[in-house]
Each structure stands twice: as structure tokens, then as C-alpha cells.
Automatic annotation (TrEMBL):
This is High affinity nitrate/nitrite transporter transmembrane protein. PANTHER family: HIGH-AFFINITY NITRATE TRANSPORTER 2.3. It comes from Herbaspirillum seropedicae (strain SmR1). InterPro entries: MFS, MFS_dom, MFS_trans_sf, NO3_transporter. Its main location: membrane.
Amino acid sequence: MSKANRIELFSLRSPQMRAFHLTWMAFFVCFFAWFACAPLMPVIKGEFHLTPGQIANINIAAVAVTILVRLIIGPMCDRFGPRKTYTGLLLAGAVPVIGVAFAQSYESFLFFRLLIGAVGASFVITQYHTSVMFAPNVVGTANAATAGWGNAGGGVAQGVMPLLMAALLMLGVSQGWGWRAALLVPGVLMLVMAALYWRFTQDCPEGNYDALRAAGVTIESGKRGGWASFRAAAANYRVWMLFITYGACFGVEIFIHNIAAIYYVEHFKLSLESAGIAAASFGLLALFARALGGFISDKVALAGGLNRRATLLFVMMLGEGLGLLWFAHAGSVVAAVIAMLCFGLFTHMACGATYALVPFIDRKALGGVAGIIGAGGNVGAVLAGFLMKGLGNTQQTLSMLGVLVTISALCAVAIRFTASDKSGEAVLADNKVAA
């Protein structure tokens, strides 16, 4: 069985489509868990009497450890296969997700928030799994759709968690226990998802890596994983260009998820529920915008080749940077939400366009490529957190980020592909086996 050259959205018959659906569902649950604390921060801030500096530390902790885990998780996919890697991450990640509900101090909350960041590495496995399952003519769309629908978990968390807590309060649960009980839900969902992923997916169209290697079959991702994959990816300059661009689009996305609700509460005096809904609108754009970015990338590549994918990414990041500047200077809550939706559209599309390029950078080190570029997103988020901590003002931070994103768009223009890269894509695109 070969890679699928079309996406049969309402089918679960093939291993490609089972991987497609289960990988975005697992990603959705992980992102829901990753950002479940963010919309409840106004309440948690009051319970632990947090200072602005401590809140900044929590936001940085939420994304810092993900950098390391993303770098490791990509080569692990090459070595152990995405099925084992994802199942293990879901099981291990559920522990701190449940544990944060039992935090009794700023220090313990910070510790669990740091560990929860590991589940953000789920993105790399999602992109890896769809990259090995789908042919070049649709891989951009497959990567962007699974990533976008999974990313929406962060947006859903922004809207659902305050409502879940409100429902618990209506049932008579105290506020101190309400946010804790609400945070148990994503941990349980991760355990359920781990069981489903293990039962119903396989590593690649031909089967699982262990069985294939035992039978002497050569796996397309090449090396047996580990540092060989990482070193090969790290030697490619295009990986580092995309590392920067992904830091500027996905890093900003994570940063907005972490600060949006509290920004709307403090800057525009919205209620917790209203702020959560406003913040959720940004994340919910991922339901279609990221997939749109990958879809457009696939279409422009058919018309003009791989270099057109990079040019498209430049345009999308330029739109993101200018939109972010608009959001930073919005004078009313209505203008702020409109601006957030506009720059959010470009942000999500830029993320999709970035990972539409990833499968073509180095197929023999796909795990290393996906891991390094994925880590770039978290580096961007961490740097944004330190920037806010240094400036001490969210509005100024957003303005500075808008300028930096606009400048970083130039890295997309620097990405160019050789004639052999393009001929390799053409050969693989001739794969006509459907899912």
C-alpha cells in the first residue's frame, strides 16, 4: 500500500484516513489540555495572589519545555514510529495535566504548568504521521487540516473552560474547587485518546515500523531515527529559515492563547466568560484557516513549483505582522476582536503554509526536520513571554511583535529549492494510489 493522493474525509476504511482523523483528534485533546489553564488565569491569579512577574513566568513555563520535547520527539518518531510515540506522550502528559488541579501554591502550579508544556510536542507527531501517509499533491492540505483542527483545541479551551467552571459553580461547587475540577477533564480525555490511538492507527501505509524493519523493509524516513535524523536536519539551512518563520507565526499564536483572556479582562474590563469567548474566536480560526494555508500552498505548487510555496508563506506572514500592529492599537473591544480575527487568519494560514513545506525539506530526516521547525514555534512563544516580562506592558509587547513578525517574513523569501528537489517532488506526485 502506498501514500494516499486524495483525502476521503468521511472514510475510516484506510490506515491513511484513520491516521488523519485520530491524529487531529489526539492533537485537539493535547492542545485543549495545554491551554486549559489560560482562560482560568484571572481566577487562579486571585487564589494564589500572583504578581505580573509570576504570571509571566507561568506563561513562559507553559511553552519552554516544549522546545526540548519537540526536538526529541521528531527523531523518536523516526525510531519508534508515530503510533508508539503518540500513545506514550498522551499517557505521560496526562499526569501533570491532572496534577495541576491539585496545586496548592504558586511554586507547585508553576511546576505542573512547566510539565504540561510537553504535550505541545503532539504537533510534531501529528505532522509526521500525516507526512508519511499522504502523497505530495495533498500532503500540504493533510498537514494543515490536521494541525488546524487540532490547534482549535486551544481555542475551544478558551471558551469551554470558563463555561465548565461556571456550570460547576451553579451545582454548588466552590470557586476554589471549581477551577480544579474543571482541569481534571482534559487529563481524562488524554487517557481515552491514548487507548484509541494505540488500537486504531499504524505507523505508515505499509504497517508498523517494528514489523517492517524485522521483515527487512526500508522505511522512507530513512535512518533509524535518533541523532542521525536530527543532525541531517540541522545541517539544512532551509530548516532554520522555517524555524524562524514558525517562531513568528505559531509562537505568536501560542502567546495570544496565553494572554488573550486576561488582556481582555484587564484592558477592556470584560467578564471572564466574555473574555473567554473573545479569546476563543482566535483559536477557532484554526478550524479552517490553517487548512486553507496548506490547501493554497498545494495549489500554487502545482502551478509554479516548490518555490511558490515559500513566496506564499512570505505574503501570509506580512499580513500577520501588519494585522498584529492593528490589534495592538485597537481602541475598543469591537475593533480589537475584528483586528484579532484578521491577523489571526493570516497567522493560522502561515502556520499551515510552513508545514506544507516541511515534507519537501529532507524526506530522509523527516522527524528531525519536523521536530526542529516545531520547536521554533515554542522558541518564538518563549521569547515573546520574555519580551512581555521585560517591557511590562502587553500592548507594547504586541506592537513590538508586529514589527518583528513583519521583518521575519524575509526568511521565507530566502528558502529556495534545487532542480533535484523539484524533480523528486514530481516523481512522488505520480503516486496515484488513493486512500
